[in-house]
Amino acid sequence: MNADADADALDYDALGLVAGLEIHQQLDTATKLFCACPTDRRDPEEATTQFTRYLHPTRSELGEIDDAAVEESRVNREFEYLAYDTTCLVEADEEPPGRLDEEALEVGMEIAALLDAAVVDQLHLMRKIVVDGSNTTGFQRSALLARDGEIETEYGTVGVEDLMLEEESAARIEETEAGVCYGLDRLGVPLVEIGTRPDISSPAEARAAAARIGMLLRSTGTVKRGLGTIRQDVNVSIAEGARVEVKGVQDLEGIEQIVRNEALRQDALVDIAETLRERNAGVSDPVDVNDVFAETDSGVIGRTLATGGEVLAVRLGGFHGLVGQEVQPDRRLGTEFADHAKRHGAGGIFHTDELPAYGVTEAEVVALCEAVDAGERDAVVLVADDPKTAKQAIEAVATRAETAIEGVPEETRGANDDGTTRYLRPLPGAARMYPETDVPPVAPDPSEVATPELLTDRADRYADELGLDTGLAEQVAFSPRMPLFESVVENGVDPTLAASTLESTLTELRRDDVAVGALTDTHLVESLELVDDGEVPREGLDDLLRMLAADPDLTAAAAVEAANLGGVTGEEVRKEVRTVVERNEAQVREEGMDAFSALMGECMGVLRGNADGDTVSQILREEIGRLSD
Amino acid sequence: MNPGDRVRVDHPDGHEEGTLMPSTTADHLVVKLAGGYNVGVARADADVEVVERAAREVDATEAPEEGAATSVEFDDDLPTVTLVSTGGTIASTVDYRTGAVTARFDAEDVLRAVPELAGRANYRGRVVANILSENMKPAVWQTLAETVYEEVAGGADGIVVMHGTDTMAHSATAMSLMLDVPVPIVFTGSQRSADRPSSDNVMNAVCAVEAATADHAETLVCMHAGLSDDSCALHRGTRVRKNHTSRRDAFETVGARPLGSVNYETGAVTFRRDHTPRGDDDPAVHPALETDVALFKFAPGTGVEALNRLAGHAGVVIEGTGLGHVSTELIPRVEELVESGTVVAMTSQCLEGRVCDRVYDTGRDLLDAGVVEAGDTLPSAAYVKLMWVLANADDPRTAMQRDLANELQARSVPWT
After folding, report:
1. Over 70: is that where the pLDDT of A212 sits?
2. From the CA of A62, how many Å to the nearest CA of chain B?
3. Above pLDDT 70, what percent of chain A?
């Protein structure tokens, strides 16, 4: 990726780029937000019960229905849920929620302190309507915990608008024939959502702000780590564009790319809108064009008509050439139309900017244009599907095309792996929120909560006070094993030994295909203490950890016993070293101390890691000295 | 300032702008912010300025008037079902003043809330009450029975009663006894309030309408059969019990499997056992009740004084232990109660199974004291039945031992 070249190509100030972040982070609490279930993830194969449900949108307490919820519910889907022995009736929406988890509230207040945000006087749980099945209730419970904070990055200050404490949704397992299958293991895991103000004005700044917030969150020591435990959404707009919320950006690099591509997209859509207005563009009513394709060779269209489907077309007056125009790398205005058609169940669309193709002939294109009264300046979009789907899809395309004349639509988009985005749904509004009456309001007390030490400060402290080199200090401070490091060092283990073992050694072993994941904290603590006490030489630690990973039921002491990894005595070392020196007598007599390196390797090989290198080295020097004198 | 006003609230940490909402506690103001979140601000430190009065309606729904009748468009090809609302979760919304769920829907609102009901029947709507079922009273059962009678006499092909779940079984038993109608009476409700997308009200209402248009003349309870939104179980009103506080499938038939089921997807109604078919006899209603009846649950240590408080009642249903027992020391007092003219019927807190006071001495002594055995009648059903037989039967003692409306099964065949 050539970020700099792209950055040069777009002048973000001139575009009036404005971006904000929404960061969602799972908390690593003992129990879920509204029940006593653990926050553990499970394998779908371990499910104990399965059930299916439907969801229906409802009105808020102000009598409003949310657009996004209505659109979602048009797709009448059956949701399947997997329950586990670690989930209860609360996740299944078969029991009212319990009281708000106190640990989650505490961690939330720590995060508020780190963001310099003011905790609310009284927390009101809200129901945020989400009818895609990811919540068995049809809503996500969420509360505003704090607001008006700020963070610093190298590019300046970014305001933090709000901090929400909410429940994580159920994990999507797979699409089923009737709808979607979800696992209840993740549902109800405490989650914080941090929304920044739209203070960000470049892709690099967005990335820096996300990195900073990520570090602050990890500083609590009580956030989940690993894939999917933190999710970033980005709100992007340019001066003449509109607010677009991009969901599910995977990593920090992705943030930069998404902001850049969304700025590009909005800029391209603004240009297209200007051209369309100059051309006095307009969208006609969709009509059926089955007759045009009665004899078609196009596989998709032919099959559709043969199975009772319909081909519907809409004339887009003044759109010629623009439907095929690129708005993001390899995505055209036509791709945006197709996103809307797919959303209503259609497989895709055809449009005249790319026809004839796909088995549609020149003659059919001419007949099609005649049928919808399209001229040279116009474009025509087609959808072929069962009658109901085709109708909904072509209407969705027509609506999107009308919006294209006005400019950039406000919407929620999903991040694609290649850094582009696709249409997901309308922006959710305030109408999707209504009070969660099953959980009484809570008055939090932030005075009881201490501000956690920042990981950056912690890294400095490890370097200054524990004598770790800067790189290793940072590595262990930011590592998920940081709490383990703290506890072994507190028990007197040498900090450098502990840090290098927990970070470098384990990483090397993993690269060597050792099942490092099988090692428990107890294994690591015991092993480090055995080395620190001199029971096992440093060189034996590697083998000890390999053994424990292979047979996690062993204790470290038992593994040492079984493999005879315990240090040999000085006597035994001297005996082995002397044998090596004597075997190489000629070389020693000739080279003296210069023979040391070669013989050291041989000695260590003979002792197979059972002796400490320093000891061997010292004895070897003595033995060489003795012989060469 | 009032709920609905647009306000600006200044407080030590900053300020909020939004719509003032009804407060849930005395110490805090509740403001709905632009994003939809509500936030509580301590009143003591808050400085409130009203920006715009009555900017939003926060309490728009009006409660329907009791007794009001409504109806929606008519289709000659469809059967007519009367939706009778008594209140409860299926017909409820949240009261944002108290935070509680209250009933405030009439039949038309139910149609609006459950569009899936359209096309299955012509609907008439009657509102008998607007109460949560814990507030149900025998007097309302009487009004309900009269209303159902009027609707059936007026040509309804089936009745769906929307009812709170807590005491639905009692009301269903009451209707089973009071009414003699040739069409289905189907009770339904919901365990998740109608204001949530996951409410079971949609499937329960749809299945209840299907059950009310099917070929039978039973009084049934129609509620979720399991955790899934796939079928509803049909329980006889006199044999059903709410056996869980919160699950969708809380209702179970005691002493047998449910009488039938409704498939949500196809609307097919199937029966597992014999049932009364539809007929064309004239409907009849017998709403009289002797409400001076008490339900007495015995537990270890329950003393004589507890029984003394029952003196003078017209009827007492005892929920005894095991086969139908109370402690030996209570028996003389039970005998006095019977001698004073109170009808005393024995049921079991085991729920499953039949009382039999001929097995142990205590039982035999209770029979000698004049207690009548209610067979396998559920305590809740026996309570309603005793009220009814005291007002309608020539010999209430004998009636309590005989089956009137499937409440007392002749054979113990739980596997059917």
Report:
1. yes
2. 5
3. 93
Whether the model clears a pTM of 0.90, i.e. scores above it, the answer is no
**pLDDT at residue A560, as a whole number:** 79
Instruction: Give phi and psi for B155, each to the nearest 5.
Output: 110, 5
* Min Cα–Cα distance to chain B from A56, Å: 4
The answer to whether the CB of A62 falls within 8 A of the CB of A431 is yes
**pLDDT, mean over chain A:** 89
- CA dihedral of residues B362, B364, B367, B372 (deg, nearest 10): 80
Angle between the N-to-C axes of helices A333-343 and A387-406, in degrees from 0 to 180, rounded to the nearest 10: 140
pLDDT at A613: 77
Beta strands in B22-177 (DSSP E): 28-33, 38-42, 47-52, 69-71, 80-85, 92-94, 101-103, 122-127, 158-162
Q: What is the pLDDT of residues A2-13, one digit of tens each?
A: 444 444 457 898
Tell me what pLDDT residue A244 has.
Answer: 95
**Residue to substitute from A53, A135, A436, interface B, most B β-carbons within 10 A:** A53
pLDDT tens for A587-598 read 888 888 888 888
- Indicate yes or no: CB of A148 within 8 angstroms of CB of B13: yes
Do A259 and A292 fall into the same domain?
no
* Cα nearest neighbour of A143 on chain B: B37
Lowest mean pLDDT among A503-507, A511-515, B91-95: B91-95
**What is the spatial distance between Cα A15 and Cα B88, in angstroms, rounded to a whole number?**
56
Nearest to A432 among B36, B40, B60 (CB): B36
- What pLDDT is attached to residue A591? 86
B30 to A91, A419, A431, A626, B18: CA distances (angstroms): 28, 41, 17, 89, 9
- Res. B3 pLDDT band, cuts 50 70 90: confident
Work out the average pLDDT over B368-397.
97
Residue in chain A closest to B44 (alpha carbons) equals A121
A447 touches chain B (CB under 8 A): no
Give the residue from A62, A165, A443, A435 showing the smallest Cα distance to B43. A443
**Is A316 found in the same domain as A251?**
no
Dihedral (CA of A62, A67, A72, A76) sign = positive
Classify residue A428: in a domain, yes or no. no
Indicate if A105 and A247 belong to the same structural domain: yes
* Within-domain flag for A443: no
Is A353 inside a domain boundary?
yes
Closest CA–CA distance from residue A444 to any residue of chain B (Å): 11
In a domain, A399, yes or no: yes
Q: Which domain holds residue A395?
A: 279-408
CA distance A222 to chain B (A): 26
Q: How confident is the model at residue A555 (pLDDT cuts 50, 70, 90)?
A: confident
Which positions in chain A touch B102 (Cβ < 8 Å)?
Answer: none
ipTM of the complex: 0.89
Confirm or reject contact between A143 and chain B (CB < 8 A).
yes
Instruction: Enter the tokens of residue B371.
Output: 């207690």
A162 at the B interface (CB within 8 A)?
yes
Contacts of B196 in chain A (CB under 8 A): 58, 127, 137-139
Q: Is A77 on the interface with B (CB under 8 A)?
A: no
Establish whether domains B60-285 and B293-400 are of one fold.
yes
The third-level CATH classification (topology) of the domain covering B293-400 is Rossmann fold (3.40.50)
CATH number for region B6-52: 2.30.30.520
The CATH class of B60-285 is alpha beta
- Examine the fold and report which residue of A233, A252, A276 is the final residue of a domain before the chain moves on: A276
Report CB contact under 8 Å: A433, B35: yes
Task: Say whether A89 and B100 touch across the interface (CB within 8 A).
Answer: no
Active site (catalytic) residues of B? 89, 165-166, 242
Please report which helix (H) or strand (E) contains residue A226, including its range.
none
